[in-house]
Amino acid sequence: MGIEALIVTLIIGAVAGWLAGLIVKGYGYGLLGNIVVGIVGAFVASLLFPMVGLSLGGGILGAIISGTIGAVILLFLIRLIKRA
After folding, report:
1. Are 16 and 42 in contact (CB under 8 A)?
2. What is the dihedral angle through the alpha carbons of 27, 56, 61, 58, rounded to the nearest 10 degrees?
3. For residues 23-59, b (16+ Cβ closer than 10 Å) or e, as one string?
4. Cβ contacts of 35 within 8 Å, gap of 6 or more
5. 21-59 per-position pLDDT tens digit
């Protein structure tokens, strides 16, 4: 992985985590937390989407959308675990 790919991954993770924090009210984790939530959310989406036959296409926009959806799922799971 080159430095450019790493920077793009961090930016996409930050944007996806930030958007997920806006969608799931009350879950903002700061810049570093949003990057982690976005990257883990993208990983969750990459595991779940093929199982249900969903594809959002390639490119940066597709990565942001799938990362955001995965991050929202991740934040809901975190909320459920905290309540239990």
Report:
1. yes
2. 130
3. ebeebebeeeebbbbbbbbbebbeeeeeeeeeeeeee
4. 10, 13, 14, 17
5. 888 876 567 778 877 888 888 888 888 888 888 877 778
Q: Find how far residue 22's CA is from the centre of its chain.
A: 12
Q: How far apart are CA 15 and CA 23, in angstroms?
A: 12
C-alpha span between 6 and 52 (Å, rounded): 28
Upper half-sphere CA count for residue 71 (Cβ side, 13 Å): 31
Tokens read off for 10: 């961090």
pTM to 2 decimal places: 0.81
pLDDT per residue as tens digits for the range 4-17? 888 888 888 888 88
Q: What is the DSSP string of 49-78?
A: HHHHT----SHHHHHHHHHHHHHHHHHHHH
Q: What are the structure tokens assigned to 17, written together? A: 């985590």
